[in-house]
Target: Diguanylate cyclase (GGDEF) domain protein
Amino acid sequence: MIAPNLKIKTKLPLFVAILSVFPILLLSFIIMEVNTTSAMKNYQMIISNQAESSAKYISDFYNTQKNALIYSSNLSVYKKYLHSLNGTDSALNSSLFNDIIKLQQTAISTDNRINNIFLTDADGKIVACPDKTKLGISLEHSKAYKDAKEKRMDTFQIIDENDKKEILIAYPVIDDDGSVIGSIFRLISIDEIDKHVNSSKIGSNGYIYILDQNYNVLSCNSNINITPFLESEQSKKIFKNIKKDALSYKSYFFEYNLEDTKTLASYHLIAGCSWIVVVAIPHSEINHSSFFINNIIILAATITGIVSLVLSLLFVKGITNPLESLIDNIDAVANGNLYCNYTYEGNDEFAQVYKAIKVMSNKLDISYKKLEESAKTDILTGLPNRTAIYDIMDKNINCTNQAAMLLDLDGFKNVNDSYGHDFGDAVLVSVANILKSFQDKHIYQARLGGDEFLIFISHFDKPDMVECLGQKIFEEISNIKTAIGKPISISVSIGIAFSDENDFDKQNLIKKADLAMYKVKRNGKSGVLVFNDTLKNE
Model:
């Protein structure tokens, strides 16, 4: 080290005079190399994040339908109806058939992704369906039917009719003795998946597609020919491992040639099934971005070297002192101290920088506070959102004298469809204001989303108090008669669940309240019900 005891004010002029050009050029070449590597890593991260994000989105889409199908297969009415087909009681058969049609119609009306629902007997013949023209049609040769008999849910069957692509999934109805007595099918639109895929922008020339392990393309946001990829050794190895459940990683990077272009790709296995998301981008686009920046670096390094050689010796002393102080203040901001005493005597650029840092720190402080508040507040109603109420429950759920109350407005979708979203928003605000009127130190209200609200009671003396609270809320919401000057009739289904001394888990508490609420829905809506263990089996 040269003159270690000299201060930077003394050493800097000497160092700059000797090394002003060479270090800058050397550093520029290092930066260019790092930039090239970083560009590759950056695009790897971009396509990996996109693959992971799309995989999660599709997993949620698929598992929602799968879980709903499994839930439906366990409903007793399906088993009773399938058994009644072999009996002579036509009245019972007709009653059960009508009940099933109502269930199917309700599912279709509440989920616009469902195009149709079928119930088949053990031989694959459709015995219940809202579309009566489908009754009697046999599905025994369909892939979904064969998967259902084997109790598999990890594949799908593409139904492509009238340029409308759908997926058909099924699950068996299993009798008490373990035998398969029928199957429930769902014909699901993939428009939602297509919209997600088509809205995913990967650079200028990147693309994304979704496949199953049999090379079927579910969705793709490009007309590019992906056959070369499907025929590549990497592709065959990936699908071979998926079929054997032998993947070492849920996601990975690989390269292949597509239309004579070297391509970087990342795949991600979709949880709950054997589909994969593949996100790819040509190397040419990655290289183009780094090449442009490298040219800028070379130009900047050349100019900087010349200028610094001429001017650094003249201005070094006027720079180092304020620079040292400026670094101290920037470090303070970086360490979270937004209230530093920024002082600088002078009227030059450093004074402007000091002033800008002070303004920046004040704005950052305000932004942090706003972000922290908005991240946990529902913008429409002003109530805490799902994240906020879950945090509250995590911090407070610890004893038996606690309860959760789940509220769902009845027929709210029809209100939106009939009167418009502004009218629906006004109704939600009215409901929120009613909930706010009951707030105290032990009662926390939140909007979970849509027309669903949650109340967490962190402490109560008697269960009757909670039930009374639920009844009061039910009555006040039922008394909402106008919104934006228009008459309206509103009802609400409320489920109440009390904490268990052996299980202080918020998810279980909310699930119990949810079961109670949906029991109210099934019983005709508009009411209050406390959870009991019999609801678990319904």
Summary: The chain has 15 helices and 17 strands. The CA atoms of residues 414 and 420 lie 9 Å apart.
